[in-house]
Specification:
Largest sheet: 8 strands, mixed
Strand content: 5-15%
Structural class: alpha/beta
Order of helices and strands: EHEHEHEHEHEHEHEHHHHHHHH
CATH superfamily of the largest domain: NAD(P)-binding Rossmann-like Domain
CATH architecture of the largest domain: 3-Layer(aba) Sandwich
CATH topology of the largest domain: Rossmann fold
Distance between the termini: 47 Å
Radius of gyration: 20 Å
């Protein structure tokens, strides 16, 4: 692989909103870029009309972006491959792409979630398992795709234990409107991206119930405390959660209706069932699966997470809302700043 980023070929696997947005950045930065979509008709339409009508309607894509449904065409020639597909199909796509990968290529996950089913597997760990000879990294941060394609100023994080991955990605993705900051705690960065989806649902729920600004501030800060407690038990650095991938992404996702997870919570707060919300959303809200998986793991580890417990009760155990709210207000009044006192 050439060290000159001007000679790089990049592919992004996943034609959702974020995959499309980062592929567009890379193409605009002058790299030969493929965007792979599973659906043949969608790919052909997007290639012809230069627009992703389903996920980013109204936003013209770079003329240099090659949109294809041919996985081999995209992966086999690429120096850098991004996987930007939902967690439920992440391993499937990784398995298909792995035999096509060039030696010593870089593979990056942008998916903020935990693999459904047994175990507690993040997307970067799936990459480790499926791409034996690749250099691995993850990109995560407070990044709404719509604002990225509108070229509004945005910051994100590249995490890897390989310095060459970090330096390469910073050159490939950075532009006048998109900045990429480095972090060596790959697990922590990725865990933060998954956990914040839980609390976005909670904040949407609280907003629909008419919570005030005092309440929302309390929920946000106690959410960060829960994330830090859980992260430390999982072996991540709690300080990672004070950066863009942690508190930055938490604030963004918990305070905007551009967040799918926030919209799930808001709709449930208005009285819709979970099944109704998921059906009407039209896109994957990773937080719903994450609530289940993290609740199971938190119980297994004995981590105190009252916000998570309350949300799990509402979503999956038919808990009445007033029981959840009362439970939160009589919960243990623990220390304010978790990071200075360990896990209690």
């Amino acid at each position: 692989m050439s060290e000159k980023t001007s000679e790089l070929v990049v592919s992004v696997l996943g034609g959702g909103s974020f995959g499309t947005a980062i592929a567009n950045i890379i193409a605009l930065n002058g790299h030969k870029t493929y965007l792979w979509m599973r659906d043949v008709e969608r790919a052909e339409l997007a290639q012809f009309e230069r627009e992703n009508h389903q996920y980013l309607p109204g936003h013209k894509l770079s003329d240099g972006l090659i949109i294809t449904s041919d996985l081999e065409e995209a992966v086999a020639v690429s120096d850098v491959v991004f996987l930007s597909v939902p967690s439920k199909s992440f391993r499937e796509v990784a398995k298909k792409a792995a035999p096509l990968l060039r030696p010593n290529a870089i593979v990056i996950s942008t998916t903020k979630g935990i693999e459904p089913g047994g175990g507690f597997t993040l997307m970067g760990e799936i990459l480790d398992q499926e791409f034996k000879n690749a250099r691995i990294g993850v990109v995560s941060g407070p990044n709404f795709a719509k604002e990225i394609v509108q070229q509004k100023l945005t910051g994100s994080v590249i995490a890897s234990d390989d310095e060459s991955v970090i330096s390469c990605l910073q050159e490939v993705l950075c532009s006048e409107t998109f900045r990429l900051y480095a972090n060596e705690d790959r697990y922590g960065v990725e865990l933060a991206g998954a956990l914040k989806n839980i609390y976005a649902i909670i904040c949407g729920f609280a907003e629909a119930l008419g919570s005030g600004k005092n309440t929302m501030a309390m929920i946000l800060t106690r959410s960060l405390a829960e994330m830090g407690r859980f992260a430390k038990e999982q072996g991540a650095d709690p300080m990672t959660f004070l950066g863009l991938a942690g508190v930055g992404d938490l604030i963004l996702t918990c305070t905007s209706d551009l967040s799918r997870n926030y919209r799930v919570g808001y709709a449930i707060g208005e009285g819709q069932t979970l099944d109704e919300v998921v059906e009407s959303l039209g896109q994957v809200a990773e937080g719903v699966n994450t609530v289940r998986v993290v609740k199971h793991k938190a119980d297994e580890l004995g981590v105190y997470m009252p916000l998570l417990t309350g949300l799990h009760g509402v979503l999956f155990e038919n808990w009445p809302v007033d029981k959840v709210v009362k439970g939160l207000m009589v919960a243990e009044q623990n220390h304010d700043v978790e990071y200075s006192r360990g896990t209690k």
